[in-house]
Design a protein that fits this description.
The protein has 116 residues and is mostly beta strands. The chain contains no helices and 11 strands. 0% of the residues lie in helices and 55% in strands.
C-alpha cells in the first residue's frame, strides 16, 4: 500500500511563499506521475502541477510562472514551491501518485490559506 504524507501548508499573506512536500512510502520512480491537486470550498478538485517519472512537468495555467514542482529521488519526495501566492490559491492541497497500472493514491491533504 502506497502512503503519501504531505506537509508544509499554512497561513500566508498574499505575495508570500510556501513549499509543500509529499513524501512517498516507496520509490517515486515506481509511479507514472506524481502531482499536486487542490480543492477549494464548493469547487472541484483540480490539477495544479505534475511531474512524470521521466521528469516532464506540467502546470495549470493559473499557477504557471509562480509554482514549481520538483523532486528529490533520494528522499522519495516531491515538492511544490509556491511563490506570489494569491487569495484564490486558498485550498486543500493533495498529493497524488498515479501508477503505471492506472491506480491513484492520495495523501490526506494540507490546508493552504492566503490572506489578502
Amino acid at each position: 500500500q502506497v502512503q503519501l504524507v504531505e506537509s508544509g501548508g499554512g497561513l500566508v499573506q498574499a505575495g508570500g511563499s510556501l513549499t509543500l512536500s509529499c513524501a512517498a512510502s516507496g520509490s517515486i520512480f515506481s509511479f507514472n506521475a506524481v502531482g499536486w491537486y487542490r480543492q477549494a470550498p464548493g469547487k472541484q478538485r483540480e490539477l495544479v502541477a505534475r511531474i512524470t517519472s521521466g521528469g516532464s512537468k506540467n502546470y495549470a495555467d493559473s499557477v504557471k510562472g509562480r509554482f514549481t514542482i520538483s523532486r528529490d529521488n533520494a528522499k522519495n519526495t516531491v515538492y511544490l514551491q509556491m511563490n506570489s501566492l494569491k487569495p484564490e490559491d486558498t485550498a486543500v492541497y493533495y498529493c497524488n501518485a498515479h501508477t503505471f497500472k492506472l491506480v491513484d493514491f492520495w495523501g490526506q491533504g494540507t490546508q493552504v490559506t492566503v490572506s489578502s
